[in-house]
Amino acid sequence: MMRSPASESPSVQNHMFSYLISGGIPLEGAVKVSGAKNSALKLMAASLLTSDKTVLHNVPMIQDVLTMADVLRELGAEVSFSGDRMEIDPSGELSHTAPYELVRRMRASIIVMGPLLARLGEARVAMPGGCNIGPRKIDFHLAGLEKLGARIEVDHGFINIAADRLTGDVISLSYPSVGATENVMMAAVMARGRTVIESAAREPEIIDLAKFLTSMGACISGAGSDTIVIDGVDELAGATHTVVPDRIEAGTYMVAAAVTRGDVTVQNINPLHLEIFISKLRAIGVHVKEFDHKVCCRGEGRYSGTDIATLPYPGFPTDLQAPIMVLLSLARGHSIVTENVFENRFVFVDEMNRLGGHIRTSGHHAVVHGESRFDGAIVEAPDLRAGAALVLAGLAAAGTTEVRRIGHIDRGYENFEQKLQALGADIQRVETRDRKHRAGTLS
Ligand code: UD1
Predict the structure, then answer these.
(1) Do domains 10-34+245-431 and 37-242 have the same CATH topology?
(2) Residue ranges of the domains in the chain?
């Protein structure tokens, strides 16, 4: 059975656990990156497209994967784990309803819309609620599915989608949305005729999904470019697939090496997936050596600030925007960071400033004043990547930092504290003490 960070929902965990970090230790050694969260979740959803068993390897043991397993079980599939191997058996009778409780827990649950529509001809999926990194609409998903012939209605907080038989068409996305590209791909694989997705997202996770669907018998070309062509087939079969490495987890450990002035080898990755990120690290002054499946990252000398703008792949990843701000805070001069992908993705800045950062925001720009000296304090993780960034700041800080609400971090980082401890970090998961003392400073 899969080991989980904790079996409670993230909202319960948030109130229970914190990380206590004694900073200032240079991280050293090697860390193995897990399979990509943002691919595994979609591959799990794609397994609903067949009634055969599917086997996934290199599945990360994280809370979001557990939530997606609950979604699949709720829909009628059997899901079992053994280490990083997951087996999904959707041969029983499937339900077409993804309930609010699960979609609320994890917005990515809406990715089952496309597969359910393709397999059952209908899907009823709770509308995702607000999200603390912006409104995150799903209009591109729905417009794409509608173009394939689906009828869409909204009632009592649910989206009802139905189609007698989906028919391929040209779908030109107004923005290369990752989720919309994936939902449309999964709906189109069994549609009648050819679907062309223009302005498609180009992320490595899209290529991974296309590879998996192809091994199930789908006919897809162009994944990784901005035009994906799908020729519908009558049915798909089970397949075995290994999840692509998590480039965001890899980037997080690279920043951890840099901010602690350490020397870390990040293994089991494809450095080509991080080209722009690595070039920015080098511009800042971090020593990065690339190999086929690993990078060595060494932090020494003085760092210099640089400007960064997040963009869809192959641009600088929005999910590494918060972590890189920690590094920029330690660099000479000031840096301007522009967030182009999500609204409200600077919500962690106040917490960073409580640790001693000097960051000012204006709309989707942030000015990071460098040469900050982080000092341990109590902070709260507002979301997954910002939570990881606060841990990175804690690793670089003098004294003790307490990062609260780490249920957010459990959503996406497998064995986070164990992997950091193996690199020499002093980080412990502890029960959160009385929240009334939140304003105090530890040391
Ligand atoms: C995925 C990733 C997330 C990553 C993001 C961008 C998963 C589970 N999550 O999220 O970690 O940060 O890609 O790389 O894979 N938008 C609309 N309408 C839509 C769809 C999107 O307006 O129908 C907007 C969103 O609000 C956002 C932007 O487009 O501002 C990008 O969203 P999208 O690429 O769809 O990201 P996700 O798939 O949600």
Answers:
(1) yes
(2) 10-34+245-431, 37-242
Ligand 1 center to 196 CA (angstroms): 20
Whether residue 15 is predicted with pLDDT greater than 70 in this model: the reply is: no
Per the structure block, which two tokens stand in for 58?
A: 């290199």
Is domain 37-242 annotated with CATH 3.40.50.720? no
What sections of 47-136 are H helices per DSSP? 63-74, 100-105, 113-120
Considering only CA atoms, which of 122, 128, 127, 126 is closest in space to residue 145?
Answer: 122
Residues 337-365 have a mean pLDDT of 95
Query: Closest Cα partner for 240 from 216, 205, 207, 221?
Result: 216
Could you write out the DSSP letters of every residue in 414-428? TTHHHHHHHTT-EEE
pLDDT tens track for 35-88: 999 999 999 999 999 999 999 999 999 999 999 999 999 999 999 999 999 999
Task: Flag whether pLDDT at 133 surpasses 90.
Answer: no
State the fold for domain 10-34+245-431: UDP-n-acetylglucosamine1-carboxyvinyl-transferase; Chain (3.65.10)
Dig out the tokens for 416 from the structure: 């986070």
Q: What confidence tier does 412 reach under pLDDT thresholds 50, 70, 90?
A: very high
Ligand 1 site residues, Cβ closer than 6 angstroms: 38, 41, 108, 134, 136-141, 175, 177-180, 318-319, 341-342
Q: Which of 136, 147, 318 to mutate to test the pocket of ligand 1 (most atoms within 8 A of CB)?
A: 136
Enter the tokens of residue 43: 């591959």
Is 219 among the catalytic positions?
no
